[in-house]
Design a protein that fits this description.
Strand content of chain A: 5-15%
Helix content of chain A: 55-70%
Strand order of the largest sheet of chain A: 2-1-3-4
Largest sheet of chain A: 4 strands, mixed
Number of strands of chain B: 19
Radius of gyration of chain A: 22 Å
Structural class of chain A: alpha+beta
Structural class of chain B: alpha/beta
Shape of chain B: elongated
Helix content of chain B: 25-40%
Number of helices of chain A: 9
Number of strands of chain A: 4
Oligomer: heterodimer
Strand content of chain B: 15-25%
């Protein structure tokens, strides 16, 4: 059941930071519904419209899986599962907007695993390209690394123009 | 494989002061080095299934999720002869303001963490380590390759004694390595100045991590000292390693272990503190020619509280060394230099390295001192003592006076034997300790300069018993009286 719930959440949640945020609001929403009836009306006052839209976008059968008795268990299992999912860290030379994150996320889920998470970090020193960190190995596909690699050649090239 | 474009990284999961836990780094090993984006370096202390424990050697602020790169080098030091005369920190960074070290591409980098060489690489200790200090060389001799603990109260003259030993190695070709562990910066500076002033720096290396440096760096100091000692030993040199002091080292290791949630044991020290010290001290010894042929003599130091050596760390160290020299502040206060308590000090290896004459003379003196101790108790109750007993008590005074030695004064073993043997001759029979105090220097000088007496000095090493020397000295009594 945990995987089913996670798969639905991860359909449009690609980064670890966003996943943790969404899990928190989902949990508080469900707890309010179960243990504080009538609180749902106040929900739009406490959370952002984007989060409210996301909660409303979840299918009815998704909510039917949760009951008063299993809600804590399911969330504990989900949190354990999330901690075990390796996260791909992508270093980018620009601040990725939502559209870029969506494009990267859908590509990764389509090509690798439906339970796939990534995070982005802004590093302008990369100049162009990106660097990927996966399971403790960092691969640098940036222009900076390329320049470092070809430093000697580039310097010899430049020296031709020195007078 | 680590290339420019691919390298192992880890991210800070949790941070406790200088202790950082990382995830990632799939093929990391203990004693590998990692570095964060600010250039702060750390070494891998231990590994568990899901995290890597790193001890930071530089004072940098580590933030959660900060990236750490694995460095190609492991925890080690570039060793070379150029280190002689220099003062460095445990990572080989010069701290004496004399500029960069003159290492080159061929300078070997030796790992700090080394297994102590096995029994097959060692040989019997046969050569005496000459300290130039009469009390030690004659009564508690140390062998080359021996581990002798130096323990005593604060301000009992331990450091001055150790500096004397280093200063006395000028003509012995022994390389001296002094590890100052967690001492104040001022005392490290003072030490370097004294060594320089006594021309002892040229064959010495000072490794110091002062008390204001990060605990992991202080912890590495004795390891660096032994790694450098092994470098010189493998080149056939005799090396002296002084670890001043291991009490500080134990406290630093306790701090690291408690921070790392290791279970505290006796006096809150972790369970492996004995291993940590034994693992170090075991690296000393006398080695066979196939393994370099040199020797490493270790003098670990520990400061006691009110002469109580029954606490955890001193008893541990006593168990893993081949003897100890006990310094007492009470002896220091009454003017005994060095303030070593002879009856409470022991050397389990050095006696086998002494020549027959030295060994017999040492036995004779120890016997006399113990006899005198008994007589002293009796003499308190009796106003008149038989002549024989008076002589023993007077001879004790003479011995004590002969064993007193001013700082930075070297006395040859031959002269040491002559001065001690003189006490048993007729020449000294009617003399008291004031005479010895006044004429000790003149007598010693005469045996180095007076043509007739020089012959005796030269023949000391070939004599087979102390009786022979005493007989020779009786023969020159007229010359001595004239002095």
């Amino acid at each position: 059941m945990t995987d089913d719930v996670l798969t639905i959440i991860l359909k449009d949640t690609f980064t670890l930071a966003l996943l943790k945020h969404r899990l928190r609001i989902l949990k508080s929403n469900l707890l309010r519904n179960f243990f504080e009836p009538g609180a749902y009306k106040k929900l739009n006052e406490t959370i952002s419209p984007q989060d409210l839209n996301w909660l409303n976008s979840l299918p009815p059968h998704f909510y039917q899986q949760f009951t008063k008795d299993n809600v804590y268990q399911i969330f504990e299992a989900i949190e354990a599962k999330v901690n075990s999912i390796p996260v791909l860290l992508i270093y980018l030379p620009f601040e990725a907007d939502n559209q870029a994150i969506y494009q990267i996320g859908t590509f990764l889920q389509k090509n690798f695993d439906s339970l796939f998470l990534f995070d982005t970090k802004f590093n302008p020193a990369l100049i162009a390209g990106c660097a990927l960190s996966w399971k403790g190995v960092l691969r640098d596909y940036s222009l900076r690394a390329r320049i470092e690699e070809k430093k000697a050649e580039i310097m010899t090239g430049f020296k031709k123009f020195l007078r | 494989m680590t290339t420019m474009r691919q390298q192992e990284v880890g991210y800070a999961k949790s941070i406790k002061d200088f202790l950082v836990y990382l995830d990632g780094l799939p093929t990391i090993k203990t004693n590998d080095l990692v570095e964060n984006e600010q250039g702060g370096r750390g070494w891998v202390n231990s590994l568990s299934k899901d995290k890597v424990e790193v001890l930071m050697m530089d004072e940098v602020q580590v933030k959660p999720k900060q990236l750490f790169r694995r460095l190609p080098a492991r925890l080690g030091i570039a060793a070379g002869d150029y280190l002689l005369g220099r003062a460095i920190n445990p990572l080989g960074i010069p701290i004496d303001g004399k500029g960069l070290l003159s290492k080159n591409k061929n300078t070997p980098t030796l790992e700090l963490e080394q297994q102590a060489p096995g029994i097959g690489s060692r040989q019997f200790i046969t050569q005496q380590f000459i300290t130039g200090i009469t009390l030690v060389d004659s009564l508690i001799p140390i062998g080359r390759g021996q581990r002798e603990l130096v323990l005593g109260d604060a301000h009992s003259g331990k450091t001055a004694f150790l500096i004397d030993i280093i200063a006395n190695q000028k003509n012995t070709k022994v390389i001296c390595i002094y590890a100052s562990i967690g001492k104040p910066v001022a005392s490290v500076r003072n030490l370097i100045d004294i060594l320089r002033a006594s021309n002892a720096l040229s064959y010495s290396i000072v490794i110091a991590a002062s008390s204001n440096e990060p605990a992991p760096l202080i912890f590495l100091t004795p390891k660096t000292a032994f790694t450098l000692a092994e470098y010189f030993q493998r080149k056939g040199h005799d090396v002296l390693v002084i670890l001043d002091d291991l009490g500080n080292h134990a406290k630093i290791y306790r701090e690291i272990s408690l921070l790392g949630d290791k279970s505290p044991g006796r006096e809150s020290y972790p369970g492996d503190i004995f291993y940590q010290h034994a693992h170090l001290i075991e690296r000393a010894g006398n080695f066979r020619p196939e393994y370099g042929g040199g020797s490493i003599t270790a003098l670990p130091v520990i400061e006691l509280n009110l002469t109580d050596f029954t606490t955890f760390i001193p008893t541990n160290l006593m168990a893993m060394t081949d003897g100890h020299l006990l310094f007492k502040s009470s002896l220091h206060n009454i003017g005994q230099r060095p303030a070593i308590d002879i009856s409470m000090s022991v050397s389990r290896v050095g006696r086998q390295t002494q020549n027959i004459l030295g060994s017999q003379l040492s036995g004779r003196i120890r016997q006399l001192l113990s006899q005198a101790e008994e007589l002293e108790t009796i003499s308190r109750f009796s106003s008149e003592l038989p002549f024989q007993n008076q002589l023993i008590l007077r001879q004790k005074g003479l011995i004590e006076e002969a064993l007193k030695q001013q700082s930075l004064k070297f006395i040859d073993t031959e002269i040491q034997s002559i001065l001690l043997s003189l006490i048993f001759t007729g020449f000294m029979a009617d003399k008291d300790k004031n005479f010895m105090e006044k004429y000790k220097g003149i007598l010693a000088e005469a045996f180095l300069k007076e043509p007739t007496l020089i012959n005796i000095t030269k023949s000391v090493s070939s004599l087979n018993s102390d009786e022979e020397l005493i007989k020779l000295l009786e023969g020159v009594r007229p010359i001595l009286t004239k002095l």
